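Consider the tokenized backbone below.
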């Protein structure tokens, strides 16, 4: 609904903008100077530059907001000292920052943009066997060492800022899949597929964390990797590509008109 409202607002803005330019030129108060190829090229370059600056600033702002909001939410979580066996297992798989949640619910995820930490709840530790626990923690250790929470914040912000280019949302989903497969491969290489599969089976229906990279996610393709099945080749659909091209053209048209209005008002 929110994106639909934004699209509607941009459509109204485009109509008003071009009608103003047409009326302005017809009244003789200002004259459109776009006449030849060079003028159109200059205007297009100016519009692309303006669009890049605007969306770039929005991307930085949205990413920063997501990171700060996540940090605030993480500070509200109850943190206590983990049991000795959990601490020892985390240290053995290379986790530098472990946060233990004294909660019965099942939650295990990596969060934190600049200093990623692995969060795990008492409910998860009570449910998993030692090898399963090691597999889960090694999976999350890979997310932490790769700074996946920060990467996902950037990808989420990009998909929201460039909402008119759905190809970015598609790429965001593929990057999530790739990061989950990579984290699983690290655990599989170290411990074998059995504990990873067992942990995925146990926690596959656990609630996902809104603040970080949770263990439970993209189950279908991860199961295929565990079984040794060929992974499906992911290509964007024709509709996604067409909507992306059309969306970019629409955004560029809006920005072109805005640049022209600004140029006319500055004269």
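A designed sequence for it:
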């Amino acid at each position: 609904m929110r994106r639909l409202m934004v699209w509607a607002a941009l459509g109204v803005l485009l109509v008003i903008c071009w009608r103003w330019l047409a009326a302005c030129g017809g009244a003789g108060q200002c004259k459109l100077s776009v006449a030849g190829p060079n003028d159109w090229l200059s205007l297009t370059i100016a519009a692309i530059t303006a669009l890049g600056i605007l969306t770039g600033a929005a991307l930085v702002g949205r990413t920063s907001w997501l990171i700060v909001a996540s940090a605030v939410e993480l500070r509200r979580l109850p943190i206590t000292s983990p049991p000795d066996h959990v601490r020892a297992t985390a240290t053995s798989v290379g986790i530098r920052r472990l946060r233990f949640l004294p909660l019965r619910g099942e939650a295990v995820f990596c969060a934190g943009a600049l200093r990623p930490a692995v969060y795990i709840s008492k409910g998860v530790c009570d449910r998993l066997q030692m090898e399963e626990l090691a597999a889960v923690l090694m999976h999350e250790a890979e997310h932490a060492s790769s700074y996946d929470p920060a990467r996902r914040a950037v990808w989420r912000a990009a998909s929201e800022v460039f909402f008119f280019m759905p190809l970015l949302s598609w790429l965001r989903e593929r990057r999530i899949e790739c990061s989950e497969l990579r984290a699983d491969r690290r655990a599989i290489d170290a411990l074998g597929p059995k504990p990873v599969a067992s942990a995925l089976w146990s926690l596959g229906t656990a609630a996902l964390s809104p603040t970080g990279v949770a263990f439970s996610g993209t189950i279908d393709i991860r199961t295929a990797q565990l079984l040794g099945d060929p992974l499906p080749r992911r290509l964007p659909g024709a509709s996604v590509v067409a909507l992306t091209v059309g969306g970019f053209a629409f955004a560029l048209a809006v920005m072109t008109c805005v640049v022209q209005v600004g140029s006319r008002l500055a004269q």
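The first strand starts at residue 98 and ends at 101.
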